[in-house]
Design brief:
Elements: H1 7-19, E1 30-33, H2 44-64, E2 73-76, H3 77-83, E3 91-93, E4 107-111, E5 117-121, H4 125-135, H5 141-148, H6 153-162, E6 167-169, H7 173-178, H8 180-186, E7 192-198, E8 215-219, H9 224-234, E9 238-243, H10 248-252, E10 264-268, H11 274-284, E11 289-292, H12 298-302, H13 305-311, E12 316-321, H14 336-343, H15 345-355, H16 382-405, E13 407-414, H17 415-425, E14 454-456, E15 461-463
Parallel strand pairs: 1-2, 8-9, 8-11, 9-10, 11-12, 12-13
Antiparallel strand pairs: 2-15, 3-14, 4-5, 5-6, 7-13
Length: 488
Amino acid sequence: MHDPDYPLARQFLSEIWDSLAGEKTALDRVRFDGPGALPSAFAVTDLAAASFAAAGLALSDLVATAGSDAPGVRVDRRLASGWFDLPVGPSQPLAPPTGHQSAHGWMCEFRTADDRWLRMQASFPTLRTRIAQTLGTKEDPGAFETEIRKHPAEEIEQLLVDAGAAVALSRSVEEWRAHPQGRSVATEPLVHIEPGGESGSTWLPTPGRPLAGIRVLDLTRVISGPMGTRFLAACGAEVLRLEPPGSDESRVFWGRGTDIMLGKRWAFLDLRTEDGRERFLELLSEADVLVHGYRPGGLDALVAPDLRAATRPGLVEVALNAYGWTGPWQNRRGFDTLVQFSSGLADATTAWALADPGKRTPINALGRLVAADRPRHLPVEALDFATGYLIAAVAIQGLTRRVTTGEGSVSRLSLARTATTLIDAGQGAEEPEIGLPLSGPYVPGVFSSGDGPVRRLEFPVSIEDNPLFWERPFEATGSSTPTWSTRR
């Protein structure tokens, strides 16, 4: 049964499902509910709901391969919006966490000499150092601001990008569509899928815990990729995240973990060494899914594609990139808010907010209040989160393909292509505003975590008779060894 009140959620889901080569009739198993929307120039709430629906529908398809009826899928749009709230995620500490410093000061925008905005992502030490060395300043936001103000926008953006920094100049939607990279991304599918090698696996899903027995190698960073593998863990998969020793993320989160690591194990392994590559190939030989967030050619330089395929025939491989897989920017470093700036999402959101400042709450990404003269972002990091759940859907659909055809697959997604989908859908309908963070509904009980006791929001998606839950709390960087912990 279709949902006449939520046509954009249905439209997004249909586009996603088409890209996954799913059967059209499967869409009838999905039901959306939950009124309201996040305040935005774009249909962020509907994209959130559709991305959860895609992951749930992929799981429903997989369950049906075991001989049972495909279960129905239900998505709460309000809860989907709340799960896209980065400062909170699904867990809410009963007491405020201590000892973790905010990185907001290094995720900011600066004016250029020609009065444009340059967005910077410098929350990681290596990225900060590259900017400071290029600008010839100390690592201080004020010093960065003074120096950037001396340079024309296009010049300083290219200078910093060439130095390996993560920055993005604010462009309009029209400028992005005319830009060589924008044009290139527009020709890419939302999900690009290539067939893989033949699998000898006899694994079948277990109704009630569909991914039990599946092993996932997670070589992703920050938000989008880890979001996808966290969902796979909630479906019963064993997820092992591998982190290079001394990486930026391990330094930032040293001695603690994050909510995004729920249900997963976190180990150090250096693929740049001979021993590290050998151990990786041993792990890969027993894996079912590989998810990675390297830029084009990055992982290939460490472990060649044909070697990966030969090591694990029938592997389901899912790759994420920021700016797409074709075009002049395919190797550019990117984060959610940087792609928002490049693609015109931030520019359009700013114009939308200033058109009715008395009604449209002036918030920036991550829920921060901002002055009227500064750029706005989407109310949540929708590109990261939506792409994350698409990654989960792609991986699960890949397992379904492997069960039914015996073939593995290689799939590619990008934040920029997700941005194109959101932009092309236009503005959502005016609805009662969903305020964040949500105050429930919560899963019964209190859970242990690295931040102390927490409550958890209910999952926005439910798959009939197949509950989603994590079997382990999040752990700190390097707490596990690079081995599989489950038997087959």
